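Handout, section B. The chain below has 121 residues.
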Amino acid sequence: MKKTLRLIPLFILYIAILYLSLKTPSGKPPIINNIDKLYHFIAYGTLGFTICFSILNKRISYVILVFSLIFGLTIEYIQGTLPYRDMSIADGISNTLGLISGTILYKRLEGLLRKYLSFIY
């Protein structure tokens, strides 16, 4: 049961990233240029953190992290084929840095999380 509870946020996050990455943009110009790079970093950082939280087996979590990297790069490629989106190497880099940062953040906080969220572990 605990395993299932930890996986739910991961699946929700994958679906949210996929939806937000492929939906038609609002058409409004961004207030800050290249703010989307920050959004990519935050989304994939959250994904990296959530993978480590959800999958306690380190070997499997690393496989899922690699899958997530491929997932992000594939979405970027697909965006290049859509008339209302474009592919961006900078977005792919932001995705990758986010995954790495989220993973590092989880590793730094893992002891505290296990202590204060022991009912989930």
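Note. Helices lie at 2-22, 35-54, 58-81, 89-116. Compare this with the example in section A.
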